[in-house]
């Protein structure tokens, strides 16, 4: 679950109305996430997290002019100050963030009278060899990662409001470190990816999200219906029950079975049950009446004509002919005598 934290649209507050600082818990162990060797694959990139922490700066503190080979995200959850990026000086206040990409020279200063806090994510994007798409969404994820990193590379080095609440993801990551839940690594990966995506959305063009392919709904509903029948063939099954499960009318579901399965709903249910019964006849010595009751035939006598119509013989004859206790042919007996 992502933390919801609404930053103010301005840095002004009424005098004496000090607001709680939601990131105070991260001060308990500021380097907790920095100590983790966190790296993961996202699409065709390896993401290596170098720093992920909360920092605080006394009034008037200056971080001297410097640059990095990687990407560094600077989010301001409290306080105010300024940043010089190249020749341009920008105001910093609560709710703003800026990104400094590779070789972007910057110098940051907190206000002379007001301490400033910063949530920092410093990470490296390493191009990797493309994986073969296996049909489970890898190509979609790769396209999204590619677009996100393209936007980040082209993002102007100027402060902007954290409109998509990326700051809350820092708190999610820290809480995961505190709790060490099942899926700790996956949780941290998701929070870092969310910071990247939410930062990129601030400058991304609308409608650049790509598309998830749409299903053929007739085929999808047919698959859902047939799987439900497979899972529940031992129970009473009606057309109305299955139609409700796949959220269509009984009449529409009947048409789906005709178009996608080439048969009627009733014949499909009967086919599934008879296949299960046939398997039990060959693999067990259970009485035929018990097998019939376990596969939806409340009246075992009804099974006999249905089975004979399908397989050309009664269940007992089928078991004698094909089961493990069937009479051996002359060639089988001769082969057994030779062995």
TrEMBL record:
* UniProt-listed InterPro entries: AraC-bd, AraC_XylS_family_regulators, Homeodomain-like_sf, HTH_AraC, HTH_AraC-typ_CS, RmlC-like_jellyroll, RmlC_Cupin_sf
GO MF annotation list: DNA-binding transcription factor activity; sequence-specific DNA binding
Q: Which UniProt keywords apply?
A: DNA-binding, Transcription, Transcription regulation
Q: What is this protein called?
A: AraC family transcriptional regulator
* Entries under SUPFAM superfamilies matching the protein: Homeodomain-like (SSF46689), RmlC-like cupins (SSF51182)
Quote the PANTHER family the UniProt record gives.
Answer: HTH-TYPE DNA-BINDING TRANSCRIPTIONAL ACTIVATOR EUTR (PTHR46796:SF12), HTH-TYPE TRANSCRIPTIONAL ACTIVATOR RHAS-RELATED (PTHR46796)
Q: Where is the HTH araC/xylS-type domain?
A: 223-321
Question: What is the residue range of the signal peptide feature?
Answer: none
Per the UniProt record, one Pfam family is AraC_binding
Q: Where is the composition biased (Basic and acidic residues)?
A: 329-339
Give me the ranges of the annotated region Disordered: 1-20, 320-339
Source organism (scientific name)? Cohnella xylanilytica
């Amino acid at each position: 679950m992502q933390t919801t934290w609404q930053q103010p649209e301005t840095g002004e507050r009424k005098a004496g109305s000090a607001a709680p600082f939601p990131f105070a818990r991260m001060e308990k162990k500021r380097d907790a996430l920095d100590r983790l060797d966190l790296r993961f694959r996202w699409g065709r990139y390896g993401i290596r997290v170098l720093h992920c922490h909360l920092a605080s700066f006394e009034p008037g503190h200056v971080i001297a002019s410097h640059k990095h080979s990687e990407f560094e995200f600077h989010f301001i959850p409290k306080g105010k100050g300024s940043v010089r990026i190249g020749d341009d000086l920008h105001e910093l206040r609560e709710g703003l963030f800026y990104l400094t990409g590779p070789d972007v020279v910057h110098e940051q200063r907190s206000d002379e009278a007001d301490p400033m806090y910063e949530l920092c994510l410093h990470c490296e994007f390493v191009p990797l060899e493309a994986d073969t798409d296996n049909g489970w969404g890898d190509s979609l994820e790769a396209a999204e990662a590619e677009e996100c990193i393209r936007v980040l590379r082209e993002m102007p080095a100027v402060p902007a409001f954290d409109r998509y609440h990326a700051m809350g993801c820092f708190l999610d990551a820290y809480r995961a470190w505190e709790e060490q839940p099942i899926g700790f690594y996956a949780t941290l990966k998701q929070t870092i990816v969310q910071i990247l995506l939410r930062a990129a959305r601030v400058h991304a063009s609308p409608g650049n999200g790509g598309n998830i392919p749409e299903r053929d709904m007739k085929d999808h509903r047919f698959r859902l219906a047939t799987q439900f029948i497979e899972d529940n063939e031992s129970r009473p099954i009606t057309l109305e029950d299955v139609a409700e499960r796949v959220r269509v009318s009984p009449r529409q579901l009947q048409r789906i079975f005709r178009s996608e399965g080439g048969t009627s709903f009733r014949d499909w249910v009967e086919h599934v049950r008879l296949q299960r019964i046939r398997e039990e006849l060959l693999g067990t010595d259970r009485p035929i009446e018990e097998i019939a009751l376990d596969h939806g035939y409340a009246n075992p006598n009804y099974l006999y004509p249905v089975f004979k119509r399908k397989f050309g013989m009664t269940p007992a004859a089928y078991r004698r002919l094909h089961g493990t206790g069937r009479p051996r042919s002359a060639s089988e007996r001769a082969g057994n005598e030779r062995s």
